[in-house]
Structures are given as C-alpha cells and as structure tokens.
Amino acid sequence: MTSSVSRYKSDFARRFMAVGKVEDLLMVLEARGIEVTDAARQRITECTDPEQLDRWTLRALTVTSVEEVFADR
Length: 73
Description:
Blueprint: H1 11-31, H2 38-46, H3 50-60, H4 66-70
C-alpha cells in the first residue's frame, strides 16, 4: 500500500491523518504484546509526520521491542 501525503495539503489534514496513524501504531504494538514506555509513547504521540508513522508501523509488525521501532535502518 502506497500512500501519498502530498494530497493532504493543509497542516490540519496532515495532523488529523497522523492522529489515526498514531492510534494504529499503538494498537499494533499492544496487540503484539510489546511494552511501550512512557518515553516511546510520547515520541509516537508527538509525531505529526504520517510517512514516519507509516515506517514505524511497518517496523512494529516485525520487531521485538519498542526501541527497534525507532532504530535507523
């Protein structure tokens, strides 16, 4: 699935879209039984970049710790 953020022109639209992606990421981590520290939760919830949240969510599908979600690859 390829998403194009360019179609979301306004900051409001990008932020609104990011909120849903934050919820998705946290849900994936919870479903996989991966503990989310307060610091990680803050980093996730403060992110407003939908593309970054997509990358993190894809990583969350295969990692074993929340730290791996943020690891540069």
